[in-house]
Design goal:
Blueprint: H1 2-47, E1 53-57, E2 60-67, E3 72-76, H2 83-89, H3 91-95, E4 100-104, H4 122-135, E5 141-146, H5 148-159, E6 164-170, H6 180-185, H7 193-199, H8 201-218, H9 232-235, H10 238-258, E7 269-274, H11 283-292, E8 296-301, H12 308-311, H13 313-329
Parallel strand pairs: 3-4, 3-5, 5-6, 6-7, 7-8
Antiparallel strand pairs: 1-2, 2-4
Length: 333
Amino acid sequence: MARDAEDIESGLQGRRLSASKLAFGGVAALAAVAYANHHLARQAEHDNPPAGRFLRIGDVRLHYMEQGSGPPLVLLHGNGSMIQDFQTSGLLDLAATRHRVIVFDRPGYGHSNRPRSTIWSDQAQADLIATALARLQIGPAIIAGHSWGCSVAVALAQRHPGLVKGLVLASGYYYPTARLDVALMSGPALPVIGDVARYTASPLLARLLWPALLKKLFGPRRVPAKFSGFPKGLAVRPSQIRASAEESGLMIPDAASACSDYSSLKIPVAIIAGADDRLIDPQSQSARLHRDIGQSSLHLIPGAGHMIHQTDTKAVMSAIDHVQSAVVDGGLE
């Protein structure tokens, strides 16, 4: 009996030792992956230094660029993106031939930080951009947003109407719908578990899924060669993954909060979307918004997907020109 008890105790100790070794190995592996992701993020920042200037607004260090001269035009990028999206598309250069263009890295993207003390809803970001424009003595301006940037643009017009003389809304999401993909994408924004994921597995998964993501974003069009200049390394950093996950989680409630007040917009609005957008349905979103805003124009681009500023840059520029003409003709210049 004593021998049996000793054998049992010895077996338990062996299993506890094996479990401890396994746990230690798992922690060591996570630490190694986290270190590798941290190194890759720092390398991406080194390879893609800030090209613009910074504004300090509260706890936010906001990165922005200016280009061109003429009537002011503000560009607001989408979820997961940054200033380089407008640069590689050619829209920044094209618009700067007849506008003073100001383009921001929204909080958490590119070279702008994203303090965790604030819930960065579309309204919070609109207030931040309003402060930045006032600091730069810009306004009223045409505000052009892409995707999640449209939500910020609309919130800016609703909350700070004196700063906005017209809107250009490209591939936006305006009305709440049931979306499982949004719930899944918001995981890295969760406390603790999400933090562990975004420093370990999430950047690796983002790199692996990058081709599939681009296919969905650009489809049915091909990814244009010019997009190769977009810094993927910055987009898959843990910090930017958190920003993207948070905005995925905010997308539906922000739309629910804003949609009842769209009809109050009394400025020129151009709504543009790819007719074959695989990410956001243009009929239930853009076309519906057009019906709710009486003085808006709707531009659905046949055969185009979500990234219309990349694949149909001239069409987006035409929408900007359309709003500028409406501002001038309406005596709002």
